[in-house]
Design goal:
5-stranded mixed sheet, 26 helices, AN11006-like, mainly alpha
């Protein structure tokens, strides 16, 4: 049976499933595609021409309301559109693979989708309002990774209408925001970060059309602070380019009233709303000359063909390289976060940061103490913030610091790996402990020599495994004095440490029957991590455009991966047959 495509599986937040466009419970049984891989045998595919099929898809999957604020607030605002059906029939997407591909092109290519990027997280715990993301649970973090995983159709949409509302609660002109919101500093950062994650999600496959709508609270404040607000809030839009059609404008009073950006305006009384809607001068004040000029510059940038440095993608590759050196899942996930700005990080990452806090078993991360981080963690945190602000010079500087540390670690691991490889080559000879005929000829050699070789082999393996240990500064070591056992427990329960303990126990008991196979499993486990390191290392500059990569240290990629993989095939077969593939000779 043809497997269901990933984008068709019943994952929360994916518009291509019935759970996104229709109000269907999570207990709905799984829907499988039909036997046909390409739609053969389907009357819709076999008997109707392509033009008529697309006309049918348009009747089933196109609705202009998806591009308006009504798509998420119609009837009951507090449901945020979760109960809306939009008069669409997405079940046709699950008919067969061919229909899925054709119908998806109509659904995501013809419709214009509305999405908001504004600061309401502290009010309603909602970050994005969009027909695609409205089923994402509020408790989960809305980050770039989450958008691409839980709502992969974000990258498929070809037409977007984005409403950006900026709110600075320190300047509440109308005095209508509740006290708990007024106590929160710099709430406008939420708007910037939401827009940042959205732009990062779509920049690698830019849409055909983008309409950016600004909805500030007041004309006076926008006119007075237009430069500061515009640059801070719209900076993520610089990640986008090569979009054929782009429109940048200010929201009308009707759009503000109908949109969920009106959550801030829900605290207005009817007189204030009447003043806003009846005064054309209020909208005219928005259209100051400086704003129009900035809009023109922004449109030229988005529709231009100039290459853009995707610093966030560069950081993602850098972080993957650094995380390859760490095996503990929690310590790995905490890389790149800044403990000095806990509250700000919680505001930005939401529950994601809560989930990344150290586990109860070990209440502190020795690599990331609040006032004493190891150099690698500190440089990663600085690189993270530089990438979020697209500060290429600062990121380049911090990346060089990270790579200097990791390069030294990589060379250390490669040296231990090379020593183990040389030992394996020696012991793969006919009379070695890893030789082909070792079991048959073991009685011909002195047992002491064989036992010593097993001990030496384990020593080389332990040196190779210990080379992966990360450095901990003095403050971290002092913290571990009271919980070293808990820290060791995190690693002792992993497969590598389990295998090493078994090998040491067998040597102590002089049991060598299964030594070779266990030894090979341990070597494979350690070497797998080193292979992951080299793979991540080869992708560090994947997104670099300029030749200046910031390497003033002269680091050369590739100097650690010159050891042959055949050195670790420690269980050779008795015979090897070479197969020649090619045309027969006549």
């Amino acid at each position: 049976m043809t497997p269901v495509p990933r984008s068709m599986q019943n994952e929360s937040g994916d518009l291509s499933t019935q759970s996104a466009l229709l109000d269907i419970s999570q207990e709905e049984p799984e829907v499988h595609l039909k036997q046909s891989n390409n739609g053969a045998g389907s009357p819709l595919i076999d008997k109707l021409p392509r033009e008529i099929r697309y006309e049918i898809y348009s009747y089933l999957l196109v609705n202009p309301v998806l591009g308006t604020s009504w798509s998420v607030i119609e009837n009951e605002a507090h449901t945020l559109g979760k109960r809306e059906h939009y008069d669409l029939h997405p079940a046709i997407l699950q008919t067969c693979r061919m229909i899925y591909m054709e119908a998806s092109e109509v659904l995501y290519g013809t419709n214009t989708f509305f999405i908001t990027c504004f600061s309401v997280q502290e009010l309603y715990r909602i970050e994005y309002l969009c027909p695609i993301t409205r089923h994402l649970e509020d408790e989960k973090p809305t980050t770039t990774e989450r958008l691409t995983i839980y709502a992969p159709s974000i990258k498929t949409v070809r037409r977007w209408r984005v409403l950006i509302c900026e709110v600075d609660i320190q300047d509440d002109l109308y005095g209508t925001l509740p006290p708990d919101v007024l106590d929160h500093p710099d709430l406008y950062k939420q708007s910037q970060w939401q827009l940042l994650h959205f732009c990062q999600s779509i920049c690698r496959s830019p849409p055909r059309s983008l309409e950016v709508i600004f909805g500030p609270i007041s004309a006076k404040r926008w006119a007075a602070r237009t430069t500061q607000i515009f640059h801070k809030v719209t900076d993520p839009l610089h990640l986008l380019l090569k979009i054929p059609t782009c429109c940048v404008r200010l929201a009308s009073s009707e759009e503000l009233r109908n949109s969920m950006a009106g959550m801030y305006f829900l605290y207005w009384n009817e007189d204030e709303w009447a003043d806003t809607e009846n005064s054309d001068n209020n909208i005219d004040e928005f259209r100051v000359e400086s704003f129009d000029e900035k809009c023109r510059d922004l449109r030229a940038l988005i529709t231009g063909q100039s290459p853009v440095e995707l610093v966030f993608a560069m950081f993602s590759n850098l972080l993957s390289y650094a995380q390859a050196f760490e095996r503990d899942p929690t310590f790995k996930d905490q890389m790149g976060l800044d403990p000095e700005k806990d509250e700000e990080i919680k505001d930005i990452f939401g529950m994601e940061y809560e989930n990344r806090l150290p586990r109860p078993l070990l209440d502190k991360n020795p690599y990331r103490l609040r006032h004493s981080m190891v150099p690698l963690e500190e440089a990663l945190s600085r690189a993270k913030w530089a990438s979020n602000s697209s500060d290429w010079p600062e990121f380049k500087l911090q990346r060089a610091k990270v790579l200097e540390i990791l390069e030294q670690h990589c060379v250390k691991i490669a040296g231990a790996r090379h020593d183990l490889a040389l030992f394996l080559r020696q012991e793969k000879m006919e009379n070695g402990i890893f030789g082909v005929n070792h079991e048959e000829r073991a009685s011909e050699f002195h047992h002491t020599r064989i036992e010593d070789c097993h001990e030496v082999a384990l020593t080389y393996l332990e040196d190779y495994a210990s080379a992966f240990d990360r450095d901990i500064n003095r403050a971290g070591r002092a913290m571990l004095k009271s919980c070293q056992d808990l820290f060791d427990t995190e690693y002792n329960r992993m497969p590598r440490e389990t295998l090493l303990r078994e090998l040491n126990q067998w040597i102590k008991l002089r049991k060598f029957e299964n030594f070779r196979r266990r030894f090979k499993r341990a070597v494979d486990d350690v070497d797998k991590q080193f292979t992951e390191i080299l793979l991540a290392r080869s992708k560090i500059f994947e997104w670099d455009i300029s030749e200046d990569r910031g390497f003033l240290l002269g680091l050369e990629i590739g100097q650690c991966d010159k050891i042959s993989e055949s050195d670790f095939k420690i269980l050779p077969t008795r015979q090897s047959i070479t197969l020649r593939v090619g045309p027969r000779r006549r």
